[in-house]
Write a structure and sequence with these properties.
Layout (H helix, E strand, L loop, with lengths): L3 H10 L10 H11 L4 H8 L3 H8 L8 H14 L2 H15 L1 E12 L9 E9 L1 H12 L4 H17 L10 E13 L1
Antiparallel strand pairs: 1-2, 1-3
Helix pairs in contact: 2-5, 3-4, 6-7, 7-8
Length: 185
């Protein structure tokens, strides 16, 4: 299932200027540096023993088990290039906005006499900086997936359906059954 939070993370990661470390040893050494050279903290973070972390750092172990490789990759990606990540978010929230490409079922709540039947649509739109800022701030605050999806639906309703307040006043958009979703900064 496609989630808004994961796709926002992928969009921000597109701004990275250097590649994320690929090997398990390089990833582990990066995490150890990020935690003030504490192998104990990294071991607690990953749910493995401190000795195992030391073995990866010294290249005594080269191939992690699949579940550890996944956790290791995720933890490195969330900490990689924090300044670049912050600059990309700030630019999206203040000047450039964010592109959204969504293929989902859109439902509407509108005035009596109009159709409110949900339809599958594929939209590619540029969301203005205020909507990008709202999405990114909600993600940073740890808002759950349903609320992020609702914020995205409100932004799509404002930009696409209501044309920034020029038509369809009172129309509310519901975003369900997301088939595909991508963001681009």
């Amino acid at each position: 299932m496609v989630t808004v939070a994961e796709e926002l993370d992928k969009a921000v990661q597109g701004a990275f200027t250097r590649p994320v470390p690929k090997s398990a040893g390089a990833q582990m050494r990066y995490l150890v540096r990020q935690h003030q050279r504490s192998t104990r903290r990294v071991a607690e973070l990953l749910g493995i023993s401190q000795r195992t972390v030391e073995r990866y750092v010294n290249s005594q172990i080269k191939q992690p088990r699949p579940h550890l490789a996944e956790r290791l990759e995720r933890e490195v990606r969330t900490r990689w290039q924090p300044q670049i990540r912050a600059r990309a978010k700030e630019a999206a929230a203040s000047t450039s906005g964010i592109m959204i490409d969504v293929h989902a079922r859109f439902g509407y709540t509108a005035a009596p006499g109009t159709t409110d039947q949900a339809r599958v649509r594929h939209l590619t739109l540029a969301l203005p900086p205020r909507h990008a800022a709202r999405l990114l701030q909600a993600q940073e605050a740890g808002v759950d997936e349903d609320d992020l999806r609702q914020i995205a639906a409100e932004a799509l309703g404002e930009v696409y359906s209501r044309d920034n307040g020029r038509r369809a006043h009172g129309l509310e958009v519901k975003l369900t059954d997301v088939l595909n979703l991508k963001f681009e900064l």
